[in-house]
Amino acid sequence: MQSLTEQQKEQKERSIGTVPFDKQTKGTGFSERLKKMIGNKSGRAFAKEVGISYSTLHNYLTNVSSPTLDNLIALAEATGVDMKWLATGEEPTTNENFIEKAFQRAGQLLQEGISMINGYPSINVSAGFGSFNEGVTQPEGQEPYSDALLASLGVKASNCGVFWANGTSMAPTIADNDQMLVDFSKNEVKGDNKIYLVQNGESVWVKRVKVKWEGVELISDNKEEFEPITISKEDAQNLQIIGQVVHIGHSLI
After folding, report:
1. Would the pTM of this model clear 0.85, i.e. be above it?
2. Can you tell me the distance from the alpha carbon of 227 to that of 230, in angstroms, rounded to the nearest whole number?
3. CA-CA distances (angstroms) from residue 7 to 10, 25, 29, 31, 199?
4. Rounded distance, CA 119 to CA 68, Å?
5. Closest C-alpha to 59, from 79, 76, 34, 36
6. What phi and psi, each to the nearest 5 degrees, are found at residue 41?
7. Which sign, positive or negative, has the C-alpha torsion 180, 194, 156, 153?
């Protein structure tokens, strides 16, 4: 039988979808990109992780064949790389990259599960000497929290609210404008090391609470600048524990 020319071989390979990527595409060869994706893992472990056979992976690495569309998608999804880059070696544009990451994050959030928790941005929670509020009790929006995070904290979304700190008396634990997740069901003081939202009249503080025989002390973490607030036993009758701060979200700007 007459042997095929190189051109005939390539045409045949293209017709069955097995032409090596380095003959089809731009940039670094497909096998080299694949090696970067594998990293320090063994080939067999990587193939199992992707869901393809080791022999198939070996063919890709040695440029014997290129992946089918299904396997290309499986490789990209298993490693989190851009499929265009994987197939062609071309980096996605900034906009394409942004959109892809946005979709990936949206899918991740949907997979994780998200709960929307009532937020109270107008309530002035003082991490300082005190504040004045005009009785805002209704939520003014909602904030998303991962169900996995809530489960790890041992709290229920229906028992929680989101508040924002104002001041530096709880620094470095809580910074000015930090977002605080408060569990309303934990409204009894248990131990000196927990942080609570407390209300006395129109003032709302975020403090550590120490119950003493002669009254209550509201203690700041920034002890150098803020002395404990002492509330007499008589006045403490009007002190309300709104809930325990169970999570703090720090702003990076």
Report:
1. no
2. 9
3. 5, 17, 20, 22, 82
4. 49
5. 34
6. -75, 155
7. positive
Decide: helix, strand or coil at residue 225: coil
Token pair belonging to 121 = 């941005």
Can you tell me the distance from the alpha carbon of 4 to that of 175, in angstroms, rounded to the nearest whole number?
Answer: 73
Shortest CA distance to 249 belongs to which of 169, 146, 157? 146
Half-sphere exposure of 226 (CA within 13 A, CB side): 24
Query: Quick one: angle between helices 43-50 and 54-61, nearest 10?
Result: 110
Which 3 state secondary structure label does DSSP give 103?
Answer: helix
Query: What would you report as the CA-atom Rg of the chain, rounded to the nearest whole angstrom?
Result: 29
Q: Walk along the chain (253 residues) and give the pLDDT tens digit of each residue.
A: 445 555 554 444 444 344 344 344 444 588 888 888 888 888 888 888 888 888 888 888 888 888 888 888 888 888 888 888 888 887 765 555 556 666 666 666 555 688 999 998 888 787 655 554 555 567 888 899 989 899 999 999 999 999 998 888 999 999 888 999 999 999 888 776 799 998 887 788 899 998 888 888 899 999 888 898 888 888 878 888 899 999 998 765 5
Closest CA to 143 of 169, 110, 114, 123: 114
Neighbours of 101 (CB within 10 A): 13
- The DSSP annotation for 38-78 comes to HTTS-HHHHHHHHTS-HHHHHHHHTTS----HHHHHHHHHH
Structure tokens that stand for 95 in this block: 């906009």
